[in-house]
Amino acid sequence: MKKLPVMVTALLLALIFLTGCGATPEKEAAPPAKEEPQETGAEKTASVDHSQLVTGPFEKPQDVTAKCITCHEEQAEEVMATIHWNWAGPTPNIVGHENQTDLGKRNGINNFCISVVSNEVKCFQCHIGYGTEFEGKENIDCLVCHAQEGGYKKDKKGMPAEGVDLVAAAQSVGRPTIKNCGTCHFYAGGGDAVKQGDLDSTLLNATAEHDVHMGGNGLACVDCHAGENHKIKGTSIHIEPTEGSVKCESCHGNAPHEMDKLNEHIDTVACQTCHIPTFAKGQPTKMYWDWSTAGQDIEAEKDEYGKETYSKKKGSFVWAKDVVPTYAWYNGKVERYIVGDPINPDGVTVLAKPVGSIDDPNAKIYPFKVMKGKQPADAKNNILLTPNVLGFWKHFDWDKALADGAAASGLDYSGEYKFVETEMYIGINHEVVPKENALTCNDCHSENGRIDFKALGYEGDPMQVGSRFSKEK
């Protein structure tokens, strides 16, 4: 046999390697019925090149918006009808408030920064408008979601920060990236990873092991959360309004596993429960916030993560990393504390809690971060109060801060206050790990398994006593 030239041999070997020729699989995989080309999140950010369409200079940011509206007036109308613009919207999932359309940041309360009311100036740095305005299309901040260059960011008053190049920012607009969304959502609650245990700056350069969607498949937030007409899909336990839900099944179907036994779990166990074994993998998240110690001259110390455990402005904190979630039944409905609701006088006041039980066929076991806190309440009226936190940071007078905040939110303040324990459930939906790192049977179904089945209503481990749908439970 005549010897082939070295170059030809190399090319043939490369072709065999790339095409898989010579392989002898046990079973040839059937070709998909229809396979559409897939784009990564980065590729999808490509948009119409605006560098020649938008010219400056711009004297003020509203001039940029005016330019956008010349082509996108319909989109501006859409934005002004969204929750991101109004900070309020429909609440079909909140028990007792299913038909309301005006609940949002002004009616809610949390155990982080407590309330938007009377603290708006600080909060507007994450509003999609300029300054403190909720009116006028010219005040829509298109750049906060769409600018890719120009160093775009907002200052504490909701305006473009000093040094931002408005022309460069406007010319660079495109599909929102993880950075665009994360600029606000990663830092909710007062800092990186403070509120959302599964959302932090790590996702900007995530590995597949950290988050298989954003790190492994190059997806951006809007690949899952974008709806129509600028409405952003997503349902949170602790956030009142919603513009639609996002479900794993939308992409993965109702029987995503090769094993039937795993698919049988889907009626009872949410995908997130097995595929997010822990949260706060990249950055520690705040798990407890005690406002009662704020204003005192206590020496601040740092914990094992390098996080301060005390701040005169904010009180005492407990941080945690690689946290095993709390598991609870959830059917999509929520019990939510609204400003003016009575507190629990005999124990912990729950600010947000999933609804569901073992007897509810629509409920599944979901993972949650349970944020615990201690915050001010009216000692006589037994309602939570909405302090003017920004004012408190100047004078450290709780009585004045509570009186000012109550006046702003329309609450009746008796002049006497106390600090009460609260807790708030926050859903865990990100930091999905690769399938080989998901929980296995023994992680839950063992003597020291992570799930307390009796606390969930079972008589014991369902592998021993039967599932909730069986005759024997």
UniProtKB/TrEMBL annotation:
Basic and acidic residues bias (residue ranges): 26-37
PANTHER family tied to this protein: CYTOCHROME C-TYPE PROTEIN NRFB (PTHR35038:SF5), DISSIMILATORY SULFITE REDUCTASE SIRA (PTHR35038)
GO terms for MF: oxidoreductase activity
SUPFAM superfamilies membership: Multiheme cytochromes
Keyword Nucleus included in the entry's annotation: no
CDD domains assigned to the protein according to its UniProt record, in alphabetical order: Cytochrom_C3
Residue ranges constituting the Cytochrome c7-like domain according to the UniProt record: 207-275
Recorded superkingdom: Bacteria
Region spans: Disordered: 26-47
A Pfam family annotated for this UniProt entry: Cytochrome_C7
Full protein name: Cytochrome C
Signal peptide: 1-23
InterPro entries named among the record's database cross-references: Cyt_c7-like, Multihaem_cyt_sf, Multiheme_Cytochr_ET, Octahem_Cyt_c
